[in-house]
Amino acid sequence: MPIEKYEKIVRFFRSVLGSLEPAALITHGNARRLLYQADPRLPIPCDQSPGKSQILLDSWVPSIEPHIQDTRHMEVNDRPISRFPVPALSDLPADVRERILEVQEKSGFVPNVFLALAHRPGEFRAFFDYYDALMLSDGGLTKAEREMIVVSTSGANNCQYCVIAHGAILRIYAKDPLVADQVAINYRKADISARQSAMLSFAHKVAADSAALDEADYALLQEHGFSEEDIWDIGAITAFFALSNRMANLVGMRPNDEFYTLGRAGKPASGS
């Protein structure tokens, strides 16, 4: 198991629980599975009582720390990820906890938006349901183009979190280490296609002055091959992230350090 994975897993539990006190427990079956996937040889004490799967972190963490060469990145950052309380994982409803653990298992860390919005589980569910519907659905927009809309309009809305976090996702989807920085600052000078530039022009108008939209705006997108459903997606993504941008700024949400370097290696692609 790479040392980096140990770091990410330990950092995750530190960030969620805020400490590694002996009383810190995670009561979730997937957590035990996740830790065994990290390395089945690690001693992971579990409560084998019926219906329980409890992991005593203060016993587990020392067993893997000898495997970690550099623990500087594991320290809890003194600067909070939100000005509002961030609940402990063990205090969250089961479905919210499940979603966070699934993201951690897939990404190797938990984006701070999940932890910050878990402050209100009902809103957490509604937010990520709509996010999934917009960003993971099939349609005429590629995943890179959807992220391009997010990054460019979030830049216009001065949302540090969304520019940094979704900039990383855009770089990965587009296989281009430069495009996210370009569209976040000035999409008109970015190395993107005329079609994508028209898409972003429309998105920026939705973000800045949606009441001024007229038929000429829709006609221009249609000339570039966008369908009516594509146009809905462009507008809906823009509108949804206007909410996200404002919530991130409201709570003072901090981007994870991991986002800054993701997708920056390699050569720029010719298109997204």
* Residues in β-strands, percent: under 5%
Q: What is the total domain count?
A: 2
Radius of gyration: 21 Å
CATH topology of the largest domain: Single alpha-helices involved in coiled-coils or other helix-helix interfaces
Instruction: State the CATH class of the largest domain.
Output: Mainly Alpha
| Biggest sheet architecture | 3 strands, antiparallel
N- and C-termini, Cα separation: 33 Å
Task: Summarize the helices and strands and which ones pair or pack.
Layout: H1 3-17, E1 25-27, H2 29-38, E2 46-47, E3 54-56, H3 57-64, H4 94-107, H5 112-117, H6 121-135, H7 143-156, H8 160-174, H9 179-186, H10 194-209, H11 215-223, H12 228-251
Antiparallel strand pairs: 1-3, 2-3
